[in-house]
Design brief:
- The structure is a single chain.
- The protein is α/β, with parallel strands linked by helices.
- Helix content is 38%, strand content 20%.
- The protein contains 10 helices and 11 strands.
- A 9-stranded mixed sheet has the order 2-1-3-4-7-8-9-10-11, with helices on both faces. Strands 5-6 form a two-stranded antiparallel ribbon.
- Helix 1 packs parallel to helix 7 and helix 3 runs parallel beside helix 4.
- The longest helix is centred in the C-terminal third of the chain and has 22 residues.
- 47% of the residues are buried.
């Protein structure tokens, strides 16, 4: 995907975890955004040697006062006008949410049409893997101010407080979640043996599906949020952004799985970010609010 040079703010502030080894959190998001042509300001919320799914290891969380001070520095940075978007993901502790929200407010005060995308990284099918207070902070402090949110199905279930067994339930919960655009990963698929990304905004309900791959590496949600943001910032309409994002992430996943990799191999498959060749099934669904607007 080529990106035309413009004078519009194009830098992205990415706030998430940092691992020494692997392709999750900031390691996935920063690589994807920079590969697609966007300068990145990267802020680590926690530092780990590897993803916790590989085993227990040292966890370094910046002291909250220092984290807030660093974020306040960014708010008054002379280059803040370069920033056109903020992406937040995994938080090291609940108190970081207020600093994220404050920085988002400063960016939007400087550039009113800047985009804030919240990836509420809090859990998966096994339940929450962050303290409940951190999940609550993402739900109550960050989700309400987001332009776009990218929860997985299980995170949306937790925020909704109810099981979401089918697409109708997922769409209803997405509408209630708040952000004007919701991209729900790990959504129920209509194709057998598949999984989907559900995109819901004010007038569209779209489902992009692909074959389910067992025991995928971590980082798919981080990568999806970053690639979708890059597509939107480069001017793609929502339908094309969803299709090309899903194709890129699925292609990288499938190639990594074929090699037997335990981490997404983004550096090997960087071309897939720009020019994915994988086929995904795109479906137009009945928007849950359409009948109410009629």
């Amino acid at each position: 995907m080529s990106i035309e040079q413009t004078d519009a703010p194009r830098a992205v502030i990415v706030i998430s975890s940092h691992v020494a080894r692997g392709s999750v959190g900031n390691r996935a998001a920063v690589f994807a955004l920079e590969t697609l042509g966007f300068p990145v300001w990267a802020v680590p919320t926690v530092i780990l040697p590897w993803h916790p799914g590989h085993g227990r290891a040292t966890r370094i969380v910046p002291p909250l006062d220092q984290f807030k001070a660093l974020m306040a520095d960014l708010e008054r940075a002379p280059w803040l006008g370069e920033v056109g978007a903020v992406l937040s993901g995994y938080l090291g502790e609940a108190g970081q949410a207020d600093a994220v929200a404050s920085l988002v407010g400063a960016v939007k005060a400087r550039t009113p049409d800047a985009v804030y995308i919240c990836d509420p990284v809090m859990g998966d099918s096994g339940g929450l893997y962050v303290p409940e207070a951190t999940a609550v902070a993402m739900r109550d402090r960050l989700m309400p101010i987001a332009d776009i949110a990218t929860p997985n199905r299980y995170e949306l279930e937790w925020m909704a407080g109810a099981p979401l067994p089918d697409l109708k339930a997922v769409m209803s919960a997405a509408i209630q979640a708040g952000p004007p655009t919701m991209l729900v990963t790990s959504a129920p698929a209509m194709m057998a043996g598949g999984t989907g990304n559900l995109l819901l905004n004010g007038n569209q309900a779209l489902l992009a599906e692909h074959r389910l791959i067992d025991k995928p590496p971590n980082g798919l949600g981080d990568l999806t949020a970053a690639v979708y943001l890059a597509r939107i910032l480069s001017g793609q309409p929502a339908i094309k952004a969803l299709q090309s994002t899903t194709a890129a992430v699925y292609e990288i996943l499938a190639r990594t799985a074929k090699r037997g990799g335990d981490e997404l191999q983004l550096e090997t498959d960087a071309q897939s970010l720009s020019h994915p060749m994988a086929m995904v099934q795109l479906r137009h669904l009945l928007h849950p609010g359409r009948d109410r607007r009629a």
